[in-house]
Amino acid sequence: MSQQVTQLFDVGGQVAVITGGTGVLGGAMARCLAANGARVAILGRSAEKAQIVLDDIAQAGGEAAFYPADVTSESSIAGIAAKINEAWGRVDILVNAAGGNNPKATATPEQLFFDLPSEALNSVMELNIIGTMIPSQVFGRMMTGQKSGVIINISSMAAIRPLTKVIGYSASKAAIDNFTFWLSVYMNQNYGEGIRVNAIAPGFFLTDQNRFLLTDKESGDLTPRGETIISQTPMGRFGSEDELNGTLLWLCSPAAKFVTGIVVPVDGGFSAFSGV
């Protein structure tokens, strides 16, 4: 790779914050950014899971720190922002990877849509959309002072093609797409071209949140739903946790300096397939 191309995709020396950085996909993105020279602040709930990511990054020669966080709490995120600013002086990249579903907000033959408890639906909406908005407010304000920064939201195929069963999850991810469009325009119109906001829409990756829907707990075989997904994915498989990293690096780097307000599917062709 030429030096010019290498510089285009350079994130070295930048400070990245990753919410949900203890999860399968968030952890992979934290490792990726650290491996490419960024200092990474990992936000999450589980210190035990965070330590695994921190150890991997340290062993690879990277720099990272863990901050226990509640992404739905402005005071929690603001307190962490102050600590990161004291330690590293700035935030250049925010990846809003915190999110998930609640089985109680999932419509099934045993649990009809009409009977879904509002508390479960609220929890999914709050985690996914409010838990993206609050970090964007707190760390986005820091970026406005710098006149530069990148915010990456994590959308889903459920936003593009609403999925059966997961009503709360689908609705909240659709809201993230809309928020991504809105915030990209707001930042450029009010604070200049240096702040970019985009989203990545993963296809189907096995995570702690969806494994119970896609694979059998005992055998590990695909459930009927898992089989349907694979049949509708032209590549014929689930994504691997590191397969978001190329898109992530592109969106975070100078190579995408004229790219804002888009949602990039990384889905093995799922969104392109008509089923025929």
What does this structure look like?
The protein has 10 helices and 7 strands. By secondary structure, the chain is an alpha/beta fold. It has a single domain, classed as NAD(P)-binding Rossmann-like Domain (Rossmann fold). A 7-stranded parallel β-sheet has the order 3-2-1-4-5-6-7, sandwiched between helices. Helix 2 (24-35) runs parallel beside helix 3 (47-59) and helix 4 (74-88) packs parallel to helix 5. The longest helix is centred in the middle third of the chain and has 29 residues, at 118-146. The radius of gyration is 18 Å and the shape is globular. The mean pLDDT is 94.
Average pLDDT metric: 94
Tell me about the largest β-sheet: 7 strands, parallel
Amino-to-carboxy terminus distance: 40 Å
Please tell me the total number of domains: 1
Strand adjacency order, main sheet? 3-2-1-4-5-6-7
Helix percentage range: 40-55%
- Total of helices: 10
Overall, the morphology is globular
Low-confidence stretches: none
What is the alpha-carbon Rg in Å?
A: 18 Å
H/E element string? HEHEHEHEHEHHEHHHE
Oligomer: single chain
CATH hierarchy, class? Alpha Beta
Beta strands, count: 7
- What is the CATH topology descriptor? Rossmann fold
Structural class: alpha/beta
List the topology elements.
Elements: H1 3-8, E1 15-19, H2 24-35, E2 39-44, H3 47-59, E3 63-68, H4 74-88, E4 93-96, H5 118-146, E5 149-154, H6 157-160, H7 167-191, E6 195-202, H8 211-214, H9 224-231, H10 245-252, E7 263-266
Parallel strand pairs: 1-2, 1-4, 2-3, 4-5, 5-6, 6-7
Helix pairs in contact: 2-3, 4-5, 5-7
